[in-house]
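thread from #wetlab-drylab

HS: before we spend reagent money on co-crystallization trials with dicarbonimidic diamide, can we at least see a predicted complex? here's what I'd submit
DV: go for it
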Amino acid sequence: MNSPSSRSQPVTVVAQPFDFSFDLASTALVIIDMQRDFIEPGGFGESLGNDVSLLSAIVPACRNVLAAWRRAGGVVVHTREAHEADLSDCPPAKRDRGKPSLRIGDVGPMGRILVKGEPGNQIIAELAPLPGEIVIDKPGKGAFYGTALHTTLQQLNISHLIFMGVTTEVCVQTSMREANDRGYDGLLLVDCTESYFPQFKTATIAMTHAQGGIVGWTATSEHLLGTLPA
Ligand code: C5J
């Protein structure tokens, strides 16, 4: 990890709708819900009838960014969509929505669906959190709803967020919008996010950077990596 003094140079990423500038010391990499429940067969994603193989395609790109960000000494936040074992934080409306073959809390091949501590609720091995990295268990789609994320980021003087993860139009977009409303500048890495519906990913990217970046910025991981130490 680099020393804090080498982390204070502002850098600029080629992005849409215009360049995104950030200072590593005040920027966090936020990795949304790269958990087995969404990416591997037998989890929540598949129980809703989705083809989960689409999502695993982004893992190598996410891994590259995470490795480079760690080398640079940047703050890393991992989130998981995760409920208490007694489901006290899961409204019946959420549990019943979509009539999934396995509902939240039901026992599936990877343990109880979207329940804290279960095998399926763990972040995939390729992106597993390191000691000291922030892990946020979130009961909603957005990373700020019902969590300490905003307080934690404020304590670290973080003002800029770089987003990766799944799914683009659900938890990633919701989190970016929540961040935007709280005053953060957010950048979405387009090759490090995926949806079960390719057209929804395309639409989310477009609506994020439309109207002068009404939700935030979008860029490729290649452009971000070009700004980080090799
Ligand atoms: C969904 C998520 N799609 N992480 N969760 O239910 O996007």
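DV: Strands lie at 10-13, 20-23, 27-32, 75-81, 107-108, 111-112, 134-138, 160-166, 185-194, 217-219.
HS: ok that's useful, forwarding to the group
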